[in-house]
């Protein structure tokens, strides 16, 4: 397909891709709306629920403490946004704006941390978290991703692009080091903060491997681990599992579609370029 | 330049450096040391030299995990280099509604792999929609065991990886496509080049650096595959655990009740060498590519 292919064919292909990429979500949603008496497979199954019900969504909360899982995920994800934005910005600011001995070494260490996959060190991260007494705690879930090298890097790039004169003027006005950072520099890089924040939130909200390792007690699960638990342990009712997945994904998709214009602009500016 | 006391930069850096040191560099150093010991979760820790690596060389389960991960790489990387580029071409035009399609195609990226995995487990189960449609169309006579045959399970996981990754790499390609000068297409069209020819002779050469980037990114993430296999097999890695990936096996060996930390660390080092190798390969390819274009 090229830009100048026939327009109709392009739209047909777009619709086919939409069916392939949205259809699975839709089928899950339709399954979640079908009542217990209605078949969800076999010869009598229909596309649309004959008698749509929200009962399965209520049942999710009976089988797993889904509200607590949502709260746990929300706490970890929110904390991750705060730590990645704040600590990433502080470190990025120092690397971009201050000259000091050892800056090159610190920067090299940040870059190098990007090529160490978490999966390589996860066993030993677990040992560290265990020795800190943080197994089965949300703080333990948060810490390994609390400030990623990428967050530091994105913030450093943002501060580098900022004209120095603004801060120098503030310095002459007697503003201290911290207030130059907090009141002058930080508000000027809101766009990059938003990119770091959104990706930190999504990463923490969607993460599965690390919470699966660090959380043992089903009361402390985050939503992803809890959903896996829901599908495995307690119920074979696909309608309830489907409702659980919809609870997890619909709010995210709603926010995403509401903000998609901003999102794609942010991604474009945020340096995810080839 | 603003004068400041020497420790001020370090105060700004301290929190981030502390977290990184404790959560990345410390554990990495530990992995490097413990790989040469018989450390377990509940004790041990004697230096054993290269014993762990000798054991790895004879561990059939490790080689199966290695082969599974290799197969994953071979299938998933070409698919994720090519398909998102075609998808990006599809939405890269000034036509009404394309912005909405972009967002729609990105939505699987937003969802967690657990959600996506559970959705596909239902679609691919023996009573699932995929089998029902294939049966209805008389393509197959019996439901295919997408999730209960270890080879088919791996291919199902690949399908899920590709399905979820399409939108992510599409966005990377879109940034690159916006740099392709329109005149090139016009010129090719005037010369009578068809759609396929224009794609091969105009699009591919101009976005080749991005294709290498996407290849590297998708290869590195494919070597770390875990969640797809865990969720689609409900934590069993298929019948007899035959569909394990390297990360799956590391987790199982190192994080069980009496996890073999030393042995798992040795395996982790092998994984690190693999991912670093892929990064270096990507750099070398990229440099050669730039050299040949200069």
UniProtKB/TrEMBL annotation, chain A:
What top-level branch of life does the organism fall under?
Bacteria
Entry-linked PROSITE patterns: ABC_TM1
* Assigned keywords, A-Z: Cell membrane, Membrane, Transmembrane, Transmembrane helix, Transport
A Pfam entry, by short name:
BPD_transp_1
Question: What is the protein's species of origin?
Answer: Micromonospora endolithica
Query: Could you tell me which SUPFAM superfamilies the record lists for this protein?
Result: MetI-like (SSF161098)
InterPro entries given for it? MetI-like, MetI-like_sf
Q: Which family does it belong to?
A: Belongs to the binding-protein-dependent transport system permease family.
> What's this protein's name?
Carbohydrate ABC transporter permease
Enumerate the transmembrane spans: 7-27, 69-93, 105-127, 139-163, 184-205, 240-259
């Amino acid at each position: 397909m090229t830009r100048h292919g026939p327009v109709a064919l392009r739209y047909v292909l777009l619709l086919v891709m939409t069916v392939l990429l949205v259809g699975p979500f839709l089928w899950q949603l339709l399954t979640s709306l079908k009542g217990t008496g209605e078949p969800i497979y076999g010869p009598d199954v229909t596309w649309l629920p004959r008698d749509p019900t929200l009962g399965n969504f209520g049942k999710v909360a009976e089988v797993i403490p889904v509200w607590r899982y949502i709260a746990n995920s929300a706490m970890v994800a929110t904390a991750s946004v705060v730590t990645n934005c704040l600590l990433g910005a502080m470190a990025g600011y120092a690397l971009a704006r201050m000259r000091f001995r050892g800056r090159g070494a610190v920067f090299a260490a940040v870059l190098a941390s990007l090529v160490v996959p978490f999966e390589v060190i996860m066993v030993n991260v677990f040992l560290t978290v265990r020795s800190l007494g943080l197994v089965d705690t949300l703080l333990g879930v948060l810490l390994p991703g609390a400030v990623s090298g990428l967050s530091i890097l994105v913030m450093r790039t943002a501060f580098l692009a900022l004209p120095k004169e603004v801060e120098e003027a503030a310095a002459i006005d007697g503003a201290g080091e911290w207030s130059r950072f907090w009141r002058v520099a930080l508000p000027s890089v809101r766009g990059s903060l938003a990119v770091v924040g959104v990706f930190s939130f999504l990463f923490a909200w969607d993460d599965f491997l690390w919470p699966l390792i660090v959380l043992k007690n089903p009361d402390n699960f985050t939503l992803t681990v809890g959903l896996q638990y829901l599908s495995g342990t307690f119920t074979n009712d696909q309608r309830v599992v489907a409702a659980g997945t919809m609870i997890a994904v619909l709010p995210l998709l709603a926010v995403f579609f509401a903000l998609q214009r901003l999102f794609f602009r942010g991604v474009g500016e945020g340096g995810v370029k080839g | 330049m603003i004068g400041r006391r020497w420790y001020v930069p370090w105060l700004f850096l301290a929190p981030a450096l502390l977290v990184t040191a404790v959560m990345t560099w410390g554990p990495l150093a530990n992995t490097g040391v413990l790989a040469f010991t018989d450390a377990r979760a509940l004790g041990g820790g004697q230096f054993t030299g290269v014993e762990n690596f000798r054991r790895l060389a004879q561990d059939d389960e490790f080689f199966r995990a290695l082969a599974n991960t290799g197969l994953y790489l071979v299938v998933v990387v070409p698919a994720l280099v090519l398909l998102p580029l075609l998808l990006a071409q599809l939405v890269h035009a000034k036509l009404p509604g394309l912005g909405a399609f972009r967002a729609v195609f990105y939505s699987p990226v937003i969802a967690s792999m657990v959600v996506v995995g559970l959705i596909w487990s239902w679609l691919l189960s023996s009573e699932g929609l995929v089998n029902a449609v294939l049966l209805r169309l008389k393509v197959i006579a019996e439901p295919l065991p997408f999730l209960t045959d270890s080879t088919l399970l791996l291919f199902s996981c690949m399908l899920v990886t590709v399905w979820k990754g399409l939108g992510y790499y599409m966005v990377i390609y879109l940034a690159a496509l916006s740099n392709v000068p329109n005149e090139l297409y016009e010129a090719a069209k005037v010369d009578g080049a068809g759609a396929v020819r224009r794609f091969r002779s105009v699009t591919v050469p101009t976005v080749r650096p991005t294709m290498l980037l996407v290849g590297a990114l998708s290869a590195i993430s494919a070597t770390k595959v875990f969640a797809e296999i865990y969720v689609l097999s409900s934590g069993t890695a298929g019948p007899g655990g035959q569909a394990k990936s390297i990360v799956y096996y590391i987790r199982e060996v190192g994080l069980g009740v009496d996890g073999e930390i030393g042995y798992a660390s040795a395996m982790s080092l092998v994984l690190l060498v693999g991912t670093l190798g892929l990064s270096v390969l990507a750099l070398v390819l990229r440099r050669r590519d730039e050299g040949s274009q200069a």
